[in-house]
Input
Amino acid sequence: MASTNQSPFYQKAEEEYLKATSDQERIECLEVMMKEVPKHKSSEKMRKNLTNRYKKIKSSMAKQKKSGKGGQAGIKKADMQCVLAGFPNTGKSTIFNTLTKQKAKTSPHEFTTFQPQLGTFMYEDAQIQIIDIPSFPNHDKSLTNSTDTLLLTIDKLDQIKEAEVFIYRTKARIILIFNKSDLLSEIGLRKIKANLKSKFKTYDYIFLNKNPTKLELKKLKQKIFKTFPIIRIYTKEPKKDPSLDPMILPKNSTFKYAAEKILKGMSKKIKRARVWGPSSKFGGQVIGLDHILKDKDIIEFQTK
Output
């Protein structure tokens, strides 16, 4: 595949494609290349070549999955997952420890985190999975590329451009965490904020102290939670209080989808269903299977 006059991202993806050791990596590289290839007539052959290659690998992966081969052990992804990424000594592990109340190893020396550290934290009544991965360039590419939300931890402005080389394949929502902001002068902090607003408009960002305050952590958790396209749904039995632990469903899920998540085939056994909350016209409204649920709805149903 010739890469003459292609964008830097195309060339980087092509380079990584040739070094890839798994079909999933090759697919991720091809997706970037297909996106970056020029849309003019002279590139038609290249686009067709990339598309055919993509379809062939996808087909091969589907056959492997069907046969039970080609599986890869790893961290089981939760309904909501975020990954802490960044360069050495930016404070990733301290943020991880503070959010999860765990004790991941921290050190003033570079590359203290050698393997992904898995933890969870709560936002209101929802549990969020968080993973602290090794620093760039020794990061876990599969986690960086597949997670829902990427928490890019930096303590210098130029690290944003440097990090883009390592995260350009991700489909995640990205939140910039500018860490150790309390070590900056007032003038320095103002300049950084102005730069973020003018040069990095596409990124959502938050500032944290070296030792984050409770208010900062609350704002960070809220910001992370809002990146997930999900709703929380509570179930209840007749004449009983709703469950305290919500089901996590995709936005715009129907009541049928919720019933099937509880138990496959459940929706066919529903005799009567009711809803309380944001999607109801009144408390206890009787609903059908196609009723679209909203965040913090409470559902109750009876089976045949």
